[in-house]
Amino acid sequence: MSYDPDNIFAKILRGEIPCKKVHEDDHVLAFHDINPQAPTHILVIPKGAYTDMDDFTQNASDGEIASLFRAVGSIARSVGAAESGYRILSNCGANAHQEVPHLHIHVFAGRRLGAMLAKTDG
Ligand code: AMP
Fold it and tell me: Whole-structure pTM over 0.85, yes or no?
């Protein structure tokens, strides 16, 4: 899949639409999900134009990859989720129901998150 520069997260990265920012560094932006599925629901995205985890793990630099995962851990600690627990999730492609075609890692926390996967195939 080629990268769509008009996807919603590309627009957030360009400052064309607002976000509730929680973290930014050279390679990473993180912000609150607009439709939270848990008391804490943060999206962590690379600034580079990567469609999904498959693209990112093939084409991103080691520095970009390290920055993204360091940011996930740092953000989880900063919102107090490291002690009580949290879940990270990244939907990749159609079977995973990825809606926004710019790589994002969801960070969920703040309540018991239940079983790992829903039993439906929705
Ligand atoms: P996914 O299904 O993994 O692609 O998740 C896309 C996520 O992006 C959903 O949880 C949406 O609620 C979230 N989302 C869509 N538009 C925005 C936005 N403008 N700001 C923050 N989160 C958004």
Answer: yes
